[in-house]
Amino acid sequence: MAENRPLIWLNGALVPAAEARIDPADRGLTLGDGLFETIRAENGVAQHAQLHLARLRQGAAILGIGVPLEDPKILTAFTEMLAANHLTAPAVLRLTLTRGPAPRGLTPPANPHPTLLITAATLTVAPETIAAIICRSTRRNEFSPLARIKTLNALDNVLARNEAIDRGAADAILLNTQNTVAEASAANLFLLKGGTWLTPPLPDGALPGVFRSLVLARQAAFEARIAEADLFTAQSLCLGNALGVQAVASLDGQPIEMQADAITALRNILRPGKT
Amino acid sequence: MAENRPLIWLNGALVPAAEARIDPADRGLTLGDGLFETIRAENGVAQHAQLHLARLRQGAAILGIGVPLEDPKILTAFTEMLAANHLTAPAVLRLTLTRGPAPRGLTPPANPHPTLLITAATLTVAPETIAAIICRSTRRNEFSPLARIKTLNALDNVLARNEAIDRGAADAILLNTQNTVAEASAANLFLLKGGTWLTPPLPDGALPGVFRSLVLARQAAFEARIAEADLFTAQSLCLGNALGVQAVASLDGQPIEMQADAITALRNILRPGKT
């Protein structure tokens, strides 16, 4: 990657990241009024891009934000971004869509000009096993439609991650307001029980992750409500998203069983060429 | 105001708004990782500015974001902004603080450079009475510490406001996850009962608004849990924030009593010279 001169894609043009300008009045900044997608790329090709764009459009419809480009043009922008930044090694694309600049206040403008931003970076290799905690500082709000879309309102997730780091762990599992398990700070949760992978259903506050949807579509996991106590008796616990799968070796300092074959099977669902 | 050439204050300098640049990697944009304050100004003077800055610092401490300037310098920036934009009529300042630019991911950077932004605009006169609804599309998450601070994660509030507009009203009252009343989309709620103003307590999901704190400090209102049904039997309902007080004339289409003297008394707490 051209580390010293990375390019980003902003509203239709590739521009040097150091010069790209977001308007201080952009509602993405002022109100978190927007969405994002985080997409893995291999050999210069965005992986499962159609699934990511379908989810983006679902979220945009819920928020009433127009997606300013058709899918083929966004896919072309992904390819251009990866090529322009010489990202042939595993990489990560981030697409951000906001409602665009507007005067002060919650009410959306009558004639919005959404902002579409794509950035790219080398994918840093994450540890295969991690220590995790159960987040005590905040809860996931399963009553909000925002729990079902990947919005720019990620501050509860930041609080959860910060708590994990403060407590000497790498990630945090969030409970919802009814005290059942929702997901991790930036990944869905998968729990092995009786040899079967289970994952919390969407009404419990799980984000409909792209990796989660791939796993469910292959019946490699099934939706089931997960209680806090279930976590400690799991045959394995994994945190998975489009970038990778991490096995939880300990939770709140207690060791968690890890069944290598089941974890490998889950991880292989993300392998390029497997879809 | 210099409508064609408004100036904003960004990280220590007054710059034309049309040229001011927010970095696309700013965590305020990418994650909503930041806070804001909305401050009324009269005759070029920010009102209750110390209360706003105290609340900003409380929120910044919860998020672990450093405020890059001491209060006197921020107060000077407010005055400069109002003067530079010729805002002598009632105006509104908005201060935005973010954790600043960072690489992708939830984990905050080790060495952050927070972004501090101040914008100003003429205060548009809001109607003194409005139609309101009870929000059905989302709920306030009283389990999150973010309910107690004014963050850039305002998308639940945007959803509530949009629902109000869709249903022919001006604003929405949000319930929390236990179905008791929390606040309105951008204001605290005040309910007159037996001649006394009541307002939801913070654990019920009320933001600690600056107007709310002024009202409580004078014992012009008292904290009390408010059930949804209580709203319809109120002697008056008002939505109040630092910019003004609006009386609710109807809720979900049902007329609400309005006691003019009590509403005027509440409204007068915001009058300049009254503190």
Secondary-structure class of chain A? alpha+beta
Distance between the termini of chain A: 27 Å
Overall shape of chain A: it is globular
One letter per element, helices H and strands E, the order of chain A comes to EEHEEHHEEEHEEEEHEHEEEH
* Count of individual helical segments of chain A: 7
Q: Quick one: biggest sheet of chain A? A: 9 strands, mixed
Overall pLDDT level of chain A: 96
Range of strand content of chain A = 25-35%
Helix content of chain A: 10-25%
By oligomeric state, this entry counts as homodimer
Please report the two chains with the greatest interface, counting residues with C-beta closer than 8 angstroms to the partner's C-beta: A-B, 56 and 56 residues
Radius of gyration of chain A from the CA trace?
19 Å
Given as residue ranges, the uncertain stretches of chain A (5+ residues, pLDDT < 50) are none
Overall number of strands of chain A:
15
